[in-house]
Amino acid sequence: MKPKKRTLIVFLTPCVFLFLFVYLFPLIMVIVTSFFNWRIGENVFFVGLANYMKGVADPNVQAACWHTMIWVILQSTIHVLLGTVLALILLPRFKGWKIFRTVCMLPNVISTAALAMVLLNVFKTDSGLLNEILRLFTGSKVDINWYFNADTAFFSVMAGWLLYPGMITILMLAAMQSVPEDILEAAKLDGATSWQINTRIVLPMVRNTLGTSVIVAATSMLKEFELIYLTTNGGPGNATLNFPLYIYKTAFTENNYGYSNALSVMLIIIGVAIVMLINKMFRMDQSDY
Amino acid sequence: MKKKVVAVVCVLSMSMSLAAGCGNKEEGAGGNGVVEISFPTFMCGTASQTEWVKERVEAFNEEYKDQYKVVMEEIPGDQNYIDKMKVLYSADDLPDVIVTGGYNLIDSMQDKLVDLTPYVEEDPEWAGFMSDVGKNVNTRDGKLYAIPYIRQTIGYFYNTELFEEAGIEQVPETWDEFFEDCDKLLAAGITPVSMDTAESGWVTSLMLGAMIGDSDTGEEFMNTNQPDDYNNDEVVKAAGMIQEMFQKYTTADAVGGAYAEAANNFFNEKTAIIANGPWMVSKFYDTSVVSEDFGDRVAVATFPGNVMYNSGQIGWSIASKTEEKIEASLAFVKFMTSEESQKLDLEMCSVIPDCVITDADVYSQVQDTINLADSASRSINDFQSLWHATVVDEISVQYPLLADGSITPEEFAQALTDAAQ
């Protein structure tokens, strides 16, 4: 064995062990147990595809799936668009751009529990910030219960992440800043406007990072849990229920681990399909420079 | 060469530490012969029994310092505690001593819990402290799986001054009178009742349970363990009354609000009524929370129909696996459920003991609660102990729909039935 290859193996070993113990073995366990009836206090026995059949027919799964897909689509489009536009604004490095960049990141660095408490106060009925602002504009008392009204809960919960694209901004800004200066200089000498440079040169050249950002945004919605749990707990009814929260409830409230694991496998399949689709859309295996 | 040696050592140490991290920790007798037992608890932080449990564990460790040591792990939030116990149960790694604070884990975990019957039988003095009601709640198929130490007695508290302002001279005896009094309070510009929906909607659900329990069949329902069908007249009627209360008689922050908001509204005298247990009483006299003399303006009453929550509660269980640990855990549980500990719990936290204690120094509302419970016409158990965990969780997401009229009381009952089944 060549020394270089040996070193490679030696250094990879801890990583491989970590992957095996932390991800692969639990993943295999989840897949295997999804075919069993496994509840606390009951015998474990094989049930074949029964958990999956139950999942397909479960109205809560249908609602969770629908909500998750809408949030994935909105996060992959509006959220990424906002992050990209912010990155384009910051790209010329105007005076104070670093402060602006830090402010953009703030919602991403404070704890979700704290953010949930802030948002509960923003959206609450009585003296909530949003209702108070609306009162200023309308001149009359507004007492909409944003989080706990079936008509407004879905979009109110979504406001907790859709409008804070700090992570996407940082990713896109780093990629945009690495576009070779000579190409941009050449475009300027040819008389290209800022709009043309951004849309015809910068954005196409950061296509891979854009694809990565879309994957980051989409997958963040596949695992969104804390903010929903801490604000609406999936309610009212199942108006804000998503896959991770329902998986949690089936596991820890219903104590039905077999069913919960079947739902987890369904979520993994959906996640892999989304990532593959985005990879295909953005031709992420090809490089432009 | 030197670099390679360092690299190999680093890799080996990382791999070994990983393997060690995945290992199973077996605790036992320490080097000095002291047996250590694990005791995770939700009684920490702002929980009402924090000081009591801390004091008692310290006292036990001091008294038995040559034999046993209780290692306490703090898990804030009773639901977090329950979730952790479920995970540990699945991993066959339950701690030595478990106390849930009302949640029923006996039915789902009894195969891992120690049958305490023989240990209690061989100690008549210890057995003598336990009430029959307490023992029944903790017994399955003739086997005692937990030692009772608390009696669950709950009525509702009301602000006498606000009642006087509204012209209410005596507490209502029927639910019709209750709603008439609510109208009087509203007419006097006072919001009648504190309610909530978040978490398990504790305050609201106590009202719901009391409404259900106001008949023979309702009382029977509220003493049935884990009912599967909520489609009955009592539940539908009670849900209708709760809907009316949400729409007319409570604060704007009730829908979506948690227990803390409901309690604050009562403490700040924004509302006149709150349903809760006597453990709340010490706050009535805490001037960092309430105004001066607030405690003197609060009295306790039974729910209309002379209904009271009055039942035993799930107590202390042991899940130790070795004889020496069972022995240590027994000593600890015996200590925590002793007459002295129950008396301290009553005096420090206003928690009603399972055993009869006559010489405790307690607030008047606590003693009144005990007296009212003893004379109540109907005794019911609380929903959190009785109903499926899925139903308790479902309540919090169905209340907002009930409140804004999106669902009918019948649909509410059906939603609970679906969750139970």
UniProtKB/TrEMBL annotation, chain A:
- Where is it predominantly found? membrane
**Matching InterPro entries, A to Z?**
ABC_transporter_permease, MetI-like, MetI-like_sf
- Write down the PANTHER family for this protein, in alphabetical order: ABC TRANSPORTER PERMEASE PROTEIN, DIACETYLCHITOBIOSE UPTAKE SYSTEM PERMEASE PROTEIN NGCF
One Pfam family for this entry, by name? BPD_transp_1
Which protein is depicted?
Answer: Sugar ABC transporter permease
Choose one Gene Ontology CC annotation of this protein and give it: plasma membrane
Task: Indicate how the chain sits in the lipid bilayer.
Answer: Multi-pass membrane protein
TrEMBL record, chain B:
Signal peptide residues are: 1-19
Instruction: Tell me the keywords, alphabetical order.
Output: Signal, Transport
**Protein name, as recorded:** Extracellular solute-binding protein
Q: Which family does it belong to?
A: Belongs to the bacterial solute-binding protein 1 family.
Alphabetized Gene3D superfamilies for the sequence: Periplasmic binding protein-like II
Q: Which InterPro entries match?
A: Bact_solute-bd_prot1, SBP
